[in-house]
# Entry
Amino acid sequence: MNAHTMAAAGAPVTQKGEVLLSVENVSLRFGGVKAITDVSFDIRKGEVRAIIGPNGAGKTSMLNCINGFYHPQEGRITYKGVRRSKVRPHQAAAAGIARTFQNVALFKGMSTLDNIMTGRTLKMRGNLFWQLFRQGPAMDEEIAHRKVVEDIIDFLQIEHIRKLPVGKLPYGLQKRVELGRALAMEPELLLLDEPMAGMNLEEKEDMCRFILDVNNQFGTTIALIEHDMGVVMDLSDRVVVLEYGRKIADGTPEEVKANQKVIDAYLGVAH
Amino acid sequence: MPISEWRTDDHRIQEPECKGEERMSDVAAQPAPSLLANGWIRTGLITAAVIAAIAIGARIDPSGTIHKVFVDPFQQMVEAPDLLAQTVWEGLVSGVLYALIALGFVLIFKASGVFNFAQGIMVVFAALTLVGLHEKGVPAFLAVILTLGVMFVLAATIERVVLRPLVNQPDIILFMATFGITYFLIGFGESVFGGNPKQMITSELYLPKGAIDAKILGGLVSFQKIDIAAAVIASLMIAALAVFFQYTRIGRALRAVADSHKAALSVGISLNQIWVIVWFTAGIVALITGIMWGARSDVSFALEIVALKALPVLILGGFTSIPGAIVGGLIIGIGEKLGEFYWGPLIGGGIESWLAYFIALGFLLFRPQGLFGDKIIERI
Amino acid sequence: MFYREAGQFKSTYSADMAVFPIRQDRIGIAVILGIAFVAIPMLGDDFFISSVMIPFLVFSLAAIGLNILTGYTGLISLGTAAFMGVGAYSCYKLTTIFPGVNIIVLILVSGLFSAAVGVFFGLPSLRIKGFYLAVATLAAQFFLQWAFVRVPWLFNYNASGAIEVPQRLLFGLPVTGATASPETRYFVCLGLVVILTWFASNLVHGKIGRSWMAVRDMDIAAELMGIKLLNAKLLAFAVSSFYAGVAGAMMIFFWYGTAEAADVFNIRLSFNILFMVIIGGLGSLIGSFLGAAFLSILPTALKFGLPALGVPLTGATAEHVTFMLVGALIIVFLIVEPHGLARLWQIGKQKLRTWPFPY
# Structure
């Protein structure tokens, strides 16, 4: 894909290395169950930030808080220097946060093309009158965005499934289409929830390359949940580790790897 | 295809297949703490504000509309408690009948996941078969047994012809199929027994007639004996069903199927057999409902529209809860009778035709999961 | 063999994004329009046009409306008939108040009234989903039906409670009322249906249609794409009710002529239109036409077809048998092809594409 089509999205407010999003003392409860307890960390512009931890550690809940699907009871989330209170998911999307899901959440009745086009919704002005006729400005807009979408399809190498309904595609391709849909939003912050779950080695390598390319070429900041430690260590700049909803470690992959608490959490500890 | 993912929004929370990330209770995230965060305080404040607004409005409202809507009916209730008691009783009785139809829905929905639109028509069909057989010279009790036989054949046929070929289809397809059953049964019933309204054979079945006039609350309140009988029989039947579900092998299998089809299959429960049993049970409930209902009015396909009232009952009580169906039925029955009697005349009467739906809608807006449903927590 | 896209290359996105990208489809649609506009009025007798074709067109339009709501946006509605009724009564009142205004304009305006009512009853859709929403739309059905009987202003205080369609002229020709010829009424209906179908097709192929389908397939993900759920759902309710309203006005003005409309727009009509949508195919405009054709023509065909085949039927029995057959056919159809006639149509096209070879 041409770099300018993606990078042109929203003039960068922050420079690389600055804090893009910071999570401070966030706690989330469901009734009496604490999903997240007093977690703080930040995501810097342009980095690949991994969130890891055993099952049930609250990783997905954390992403859900970041894009406004859950609202934490305590703590605050600051995005681009602005403290957010009760953001709705569509507002988070408008602010430039895109997301893929642990269980693929594609629009199963629609084609690959339409799915990715849906990612362009926020960029489209849309005028009911012209859309009735599918002429003039409405059609020009469709074509302009179709070009961007075709670039993404090109980038992800999914030309051959362009017009197939996504419900019938194999799992690996569905994950790729979902990434495409998130990329179509031209996000500043891309949240990837286990992008490589259930993939074979070759598909994982492809996906890793796409993630690195997105990060390098377009400077997109990426927050990533992943269970494959090899992938996490190779891809990420910094890693935050959660266990039972609490943060137990934060730092570069090497630091985290050497952390005793992390080793205990993953390997178990003799009591 | 678009409809392939159409799922019923019932109370079952879909567990994600993998990982079991975040085990959480079924209560959604609470809003940030503030003075109004406590539900009771907030509700109390809003109620107080509404009552105050009405009181002030009633004082200054020149035409007296607010007075007529918010004060008069309650004054009437206090002044004539016998009328109130009569209205509540009538509501209770129709509520029992709504609850019975809803019960049939719930049974089938729990066991087969089918939203059985045909339950209302099964009531009519059962009653019609009973009366029709009697008209053809079959003794009353033999006719009851034969009708039960017909309901069993119906259950087996539906299982074989409709459910089995459509297994694993999206819910909406099965829902539509029950529409097909409805149409078929209407056509079939009318061509066999004719389309004219019929009298229920109450005396032949030794159902009581007449009324008991009780002197209470300073007036006469009349209780139809048939209504009392209906309430008693309905309670007995519900108790019997509860025992059946709780203590028999089939009941246990039924509950297993209701929880998870796949898991039930994996431990060797035959779905087909369970479905026949459940649809037959729903058929028995339908027959009893039909007899009770037919005794109060005619047996005719006009009942079909009344049977739709079971839908608001269901959304009040939840699609899977038997106590919900009963409580929901009573709330709807009493609510619509009170509404019709005290508020109906203000806007021309006849509001019974839609009031039930609005009561249910009002509840839904505050509790989308129904009275007894668990709070729906969305997860991705 | 005959139906193949081979050799038809698209060099622009606009050509690729056309509704009918394949030449044979475009020829096919031209042939159908030709038959509808030329052959049927020339060859069909009055009975065929006024008792088969006009009902078919009215039902098609209503089915398209419901399909936008149920098939494209995934919101099930059992109140279509009531929204049709709103269109019919608004049109009746409008033409009483403004007798001089062009009737076509009034029919479209009454669709707007219906859309407004639809939006109102669509408001709960943000909090309620699935069958729960279906029950909410039943509230609309029964409340509006009640209003049609209890508010005499709606039928101009007629003693009979019926509305009688007055005569209205279009280009000097009577299009409504007793003197309007079946052909004129047919042409007006056909024109409206063709234009509105074209609009619907444009909507569902563009941004709005995509956001509807996104809401249908995965509402949570749709919201995270920046789609405002309430707006998308209410727009679907508005557009759907607009189509239903126009169809209802057409039903009374071009088909029934005079009717105790409160009885016409009953729950059974709502169900019938839902059948059409599901048998035709959810999320398919062609399916709406196929479903409407199937369910509006089938009863007529049975009524006149069975006696012709030597099956003796009296009026009442014929109705019962029709009911049974329709019920049985619904079940058979769902078993054979749960995705509706539209899917059969696609399979047929695929067969044509590869004919005479199986693959």
In short: The radius of gyration of chain A is 19 Å. Chain A has two domains: 1-96+187-271, 106-185. Chain A touches chain C at residues 67, 69, 88-90, 92-94, 98-99, 101, 105-110, 114, 117-119, 121-122, 124, 126, 128, 131-134, 138-139, 141-143, 146-147, 150, 181, 185 (CB under 8 Å). The first strand of chain A starts at residue 19 and ends at 30.
